[in-house]
Structure formats: structure tokens, C-alpha cells
Amino acid sequence: MTEAENFTSVKEFILLGLTTHRNSQLLLFGVILIIYLLTVLGNLLIIVLVRTDKKLHTPMYYFLSHLAWVDMCYVTTTMPLMLTQLLTGDAAISLAFCMVQIYTAVALGGVEILLFGVMAYDRYLAICRPLLYPVLMNKSCQLQCSSTCWITAPLVSLIYIVCLLCQNYCGPNQINNFICEMLVVLKLACGDTKIVEAIIFGIGGFFLLLPLSIVLASYGFILHSVLQMKSSGRRKAFSTCGSHLLVISMFYGPLLWVYIIPKTNSATDCDKQIAIFYVLITPLLNSIIYTLRNKDFHRAVAKIL
Question: Cβ atoms within 10 A of the Cβ of 303, count?
Fold first, then answer.
């Protein structure tokens, strides 16, 4: 067997999933199917309402509709494959499809990270700079911010996928996760991957920490302004900002654990359990928290009904 044949011996990977017990797989299939349908329907409702109701044509809801698109696309790149594997028991995934899933998941996740930063900055301008808000966050600025998110993240994701494709995979081929996770796949590569890991962690750290710093700084200024409000307005602002920060923390926390905190070379069950938060829970929470607690959405739904 030649050296080239050794390097290309792995044609597919085996996803170990959340469990190997058949009854548990069928139970998870039902739960994840419900989560997927609720996520898609909830985010689709946000998009329809923002597009059809003129009173929702504001910067906050404009960015929220983009977030809904991201979440809907993100779960569609991950959950259908999970559901198929849980139902059929076939955990095999081709190398090419695995790379496609990694690219789309990382790109959409990157768009969501940037959108959280943009949305936090938007709330800072609305609360702390209300007189300048219509000028600073005009339609041109909204378009520029959203376009930057949708262009930057896929371009950065190309760097990741090129790094992965340049590696040689000659076994083993078992991925200890329920999706093709970039770092878990990289651990299966033959040869030294230290340079690639340094590139991934370096870019990932910057890509995560820069928007996170914008989020923390924005909500820090918002908190300072809210504390100087009257009690009635303060309660409403705390309720809104608190729910937003809950979603952001549940999204950023697991990502920081996976992509920033250094760990051993072995993929643990803890990593895939943590991945549940940003793969399954956060996209669903976005649609719930941003709609159920929002009186503007209640009015828009009542109007359509």
C-alpha cells in the first residue's frame, strides 16, 4: 500500500452519538424532533412577523429577524442528520459531508456570535444614546452591520475548513460526538496538528472574545443607565436585558469552554454534553425569550389572528 493510500484510507466517520442504547435513541429522537420543529416554527414566526408588521420595522427587530434566520439554518444543518441516525441507528457519515457540516455550522455559529455583539451595541445606543439613536442606527448602518456578519463569518470559516482538509485521516474514524465537531475531527488526523490547533484557537479566541467584549461593555453601560431610571422603567429594562444575557451566556459559555479553555487530546463525554447547549437549546431559547416576553410580538400575533 502506498503512502498516498494510507493518507486517504478513511472515507467516512462514525458518530458515537449521545447514547448507544436503542430505546434511549428512540426517546431522544422524539425529544429532538419536537425541539427541532419548535425551533423552526418559532424562528419562522419571528421572521414573518417582522416582515409583515410595520411597527416591527425597527433596528432591534431587524437584527432579531437575522438571528432567527441563523438559528433556523443552524439547526437544519445539524438536527436532521441527528434524527436520521437516531431513527435508523446508522451513525456513519462521509468525510465530505462531515466537512460540509463543519463549515456550515461554524459559519452560521460565527454569524450568530457577531449578531449578538451588534444587537448588544444596538441596545446600548437605544438606551444610553436615545437622541442620537435614529441617526447612528439608520437603515444604511443596519445593512452594513448585518452584511458584515454574514460575510465575515463564512470567510473565517474557510480558514478552518482548509486547515482540516489539509490534514491526513488514516484512522481511527470514531467521532465521540453527535455532530462533526471541528476539534474532535482534528484529533483524528494523522501527524502533528499543533500548528493547525494554534491557528484554530488563535482565530477562534479573537472571534469569540471581541464580540463578547462588545456585549459585556454594552450591557455594562446599559446597567449604569438603568440604575438611574425610575423604578417602573428600571424593572422593565432589567427584565429585558436579563433575559437577553441569559441566552447570550448559554451560547457563549459552552463555546468558550470548547474553543478557549485548553484540554487534553481525548474527546470526553463532557464535551458533547456541553455541545447540546449551543446546538439544541440556544436556538430554541432565542425564539422563546425574544417573543414570549415581548408585548410587540404579542400584539403582532393578535393582529394576524
Answer: 11
Q: Are 108 and 77 in contact (CB under 8 A)?
A: yes
Query: What is the C-alpha to C-alpha distance for residues 179 and 110, in angstroms, rounded to an integer?
Result: 17
Residue 93's beta-bridge partner residues?
13
- pLDDT class of 205 with cuts at 50, 70, 90: confident
What are 252-257's contacts with CB under 8 Å, separation 24+?
252/113, 252/116, 252/208, 252/212, 252/215, 253/277, 254/278, 255/109, 255/113, 255/208, 256/208, 256/212
Task: Quote the Cα angle for 302-285-202, to 5°.
Answer: 140
Report how far residue 214's alpha carbon sits from residue 124's, in angstroms, rounded to the nearest whole number.
10
Task: Judge whether 274 and 254 are in contact, CB under 8 Å.
Answer: yes
Cα-Cα-Cα-Cα dihedral of 267, 285, 150, 60, to 10°? -150
Residue 164 has pLDDT above 70, yes or no: yes
Angle (CA) 78-81-86 rounded to 5° is 120
Q: What is the pLDDT of residues 70-125, one digit of tens each?
A: 999 999 998 998 898 888 888 888 888 999 999 999 999 999 999 999 999 998 99
Question: Once rounded to an integer, what is the mean pLDDT over residues 134-163?
Answer: 93
Residue 54 DSSP code: G
- Does pLDDT of 8 surpass 70? no
Determine if the pTM surpasses 0.85: yes
Strands 12-15, 92-94: pairing kind: antiparallel
- What is the distance between the alpha carbons of residues 128 and 229, in angstroms, rounded to a whole number? 11
The predicted model gives 9-15 an average pLDDT of 82
234 Cβ contact list (under 8 Å, min separation 6): 226, 227
Element containing residue 14 per DSSP (H, E):
strand 12-15
Count other C-beta atoms under 10 Å from residue 191's C-beta. 10
Q: Let me know: does 82 contact 51? Beta carbons within 8 Å.
A: no
Q: Helices H, strands E: what count in the chain? A: 12, 3
